Amino acid sequence: MNTLTEILKEPYATVLYDEEIQLGKIVWEGEKSLSLEQYRKPFQALLDWSADGKTVSLFMSDTRHQGVVSPENRKWFGHEMVPAAIEGGLKRAAVISGANVFKKYYLNLILSAVNKFNLPFKLFSDEDSAMEFLLADS
Questions:
Q1: pLDDT (tens digit, 9 = 90+) per residue, 71-83?
Q2: Which of 128, 50, 31 is nearest to 89 (CA)?
Q3: For the chain, how many structural domains are there in total?
């Protein structure tokens, strides 16, 4: 990766941006359940960054250490966050995940929500594969 700018640093997530490839990245940390505000804050930081003139055309979320995501947050992600990100210029998205059955269930729900927007979006087990997918058409 190139030079990453830290947009947000919280105990539960770090948000980074790579200007050269227009990548927004959230690395989730802590493995505990997140409040509505905690879950939404990293995504909102990227949306705000995009609104300030920085294009986020690629998005990666590393959920290997993310806590349980509530149904309310899943709905918010699919109904509000994804359309706003696409409107802001998002072209491709990737999620890195471990093998936890609950996380796979959550991510499959997210995947089905995103599919209706025709946004190329895939799940991966490692960052290298995710980056290969994200950069495939650039």
A1: 898 889 888 999 9
A2: 50
A3: 1
In 3D space, the residue among 9, 33, 5 whose CA is nearest the CA of residue 20 turns out to be 5
If phi > 0 it is left, if psi is from -120 to 50 it is alpha, else beta; for residue 55 that is beta
CATH number of residue 16's parent domain = 3.30.750.24
Sheet holding 58-62, edge to edge: 4-10, 13-18, 23-28, 58-62, 92-96, 121-124
Do the beta carbons of residue 46 and residue 85 sit within 8 Å?
Answer: yes
What's the CA gap between 118 and 115, in Å, rounded? 5
The pTM for the full model equals 0.90
Residue 13: exposure state from Cβ atoms within 10 A (0-12, 13-18, ≥19): buried
From CA 15, how far away is CA 138, in angstroms rounded?
22
Per-residue model confidence as pLDDT tens digits over 61-113: 999 888 778 889 888 988 899 999 999 899 999 999 876 666 777 777 778 87
Domain membership of residue 125 as a residue range: 4-134
